[in-house]
Write a structure and sequence with these properties.
The complex is a heterodimer of chains A (274) and B (104).
Chain A (H helix, E strand, L loop, with lengths): L3 H18 L4 H10 L4 H26 L4 H21 L5 H21 L17 E2 L5 E6 L2 E6 L3 H18 L4 H11 L4 H25 L5 H24 L2 H22 L2
Antiparallel strand pairs in A: 1-2, 2-3
Helix pairs in contact in A: 1-2, 1-3, 1-8, 1-9, 2-3, 3-8, 3-9, 4-6, 4-8, 5-6, 5-7, 5-10, 6-7, 7-8
Chain B lengths: L23 H23 L2 H32 L3 H20 L1
The chains are: A mainly alpha (274), B mainly alpha (104).
Chain lengths: 274, 104
């Protein structure tokens, strides 16, 4: 096990990039911990602790900025959870090598979609200028602030998006990862939700996923207290800084950061499968 | 009523009905939770093993409970405001989490 100081630093870094790109962070932290010779049964809970703490640290800021769409997040999470249960049941019948390739290909597709896309899909609409940003009651739409202008949006292709969420859940269940890195591109590229909203909503949803996973890891006795505390302390700092930075970044920059992170994840995962 | 002109895109969207700081209470609650979890994490690192084990357990329980508490907060809010469809989605998510824990 790495020293407490190194664990704290890793927790900070992974929660920081997780909060900016809405990819959770466990997908980055767990491979690094495995490289540091941490047992997989202990690395996975530490990854989820980083996700939970990063999500918590980012929550207040993202809530005040009106960029979290809770209705969309919970809808996606519900369908993804159903997929996760199916994936967990299927996990015994698929090889780890093929699993890694499926995971890597999904990340690569999300990365290409995020990097290739140019321009803004949603444009400011004047009548909303006096309204605070946020989600609209009873709908999967809302507004967010972009360059001091209020931009309305509405989730599109909801059926496809929720169907793909089941698939992302299956992949998460098969691989034992949170799946934030799949949920963000699903919301932004399939459901056409602004990437800042997608990333913040994914960060919120990742907290619920981590909560479920930690409950299970705790019951299985897989959480070591001191390494856990170090990762949590670091991740709180990283999540806080990441959320502050994300709120000030241009949407195109967030999209590029998310795409680049997904590309790194895809290379790590696919590279490890050969 | 909106005075949207044709092709302005304005007519595609409903008029928002919320006011400012509508999540103020939740935001304050989450800020306090961050401070509490942060303090617990630091104190857990500083204390000797027996006490650290107990505090660490509280830390993990808090990290599990806070996101679920946030979902419960929204479920009760949406239920009170008649947004029953999404309240049901929130309850369903909580049920799935519970089933996952039971299966473990």
């Amino acid at each position: 096990m790495p020293s407490i100081l190194i664990l704290g630093f890793l927790g900070t870094f992974c929660a920081f990039v997780g909060a900016i790109g809405g990819i959770g962070g466990a997908t980055l932290l767990v491979p690094v911990l495995l490289l540091c010779n941490v047992e997989p049964r202990l690395a996975a809970p530490l990854g989820m602790l980083a996700v939970a703490a990063g999500s918590l640290a980012a929550a207040s800021r993202q809530l005040n900025d009106g960029v979290v769409h809770h209705r969309l997040g919970l809808s996606v999470e519900l369908f993804a959870s159903i997929g996760t249960v199916c994936g967990a049941l299927l996990s015994a019948s698929i090889s780890e090598q093929w699993l890694a390739r499926i995971l890597g290909t999904a990340a690569l597709a999300g990365a290409i979609a995020a990097i290739v896309r140019k321009g803004l899909r949603n444009q400011p609409v004047g009548i909303f200028d006096d309204e605070p940003a946020g989600e609209w009651p009873g709908t999967l739409g809302g507004t967010y602030v972009l360059n001091d202008a209020v931009v309305p949006y509405h989730a599109q292709h909801v059926g496809y998006g929720l169907g793909i969420s089941v698939f992302t859940g299956v992949v998460s269940g098969l691989a034992g990862v949170g799946g934030g890195f799949l949920k963000t591109p699903t919301m932004s590229e399939v459901m056409k939700v602004p990437v800042k909203v997608a990333a913040a909503t994914s960060t919120f949803v990742s907290g619920i996923t981590a909560s479920t996973a930690l409950l299970i890891y705790g019951i299985q006795g897989r959480i070591e207290v001191r390494p856990a505390a170090a990762v949590v302390a670091g991740a709180l700092l990283g999540g806080f800084i990441g959320a502050r930075l994300q709120s000030g970044l241009q949407a195109s920059t967030v999209r590029k950061v998310t795409g680049s992170l997904l590309l790194v994840v895809a290379v790590i995962v696919i590279g490890g499968s050969w | 009523m909106s005075s949207a002109t044709p092709n302005s895109g304005e007519e595609r969207f409903p008029r928002p009905i919320h006011g400012p700081n509508r999540f103020f209470a939740l935001s304050v609650w989450l800020k306090r939770a961050v401070v509490l979890v942060g303090l617990l994490a630091v104190v857990t690192l500083l204390l000797p093993p027996p006490a650290a084990e107990k505090l660490g357990l509280i830390l993990v329980v808090l990290l599990i409970a806070i996101p679920l508490g946030r979902v419960i907060w929204f479920v009760q809010r949406w239920t009170r405001r008649g947004d029953l469809r999404f309240a049901a989605v929130g309850i369903a998510v909580l049920v799935v989490v519970g089933v996952g824990a039971l299966l473990a």
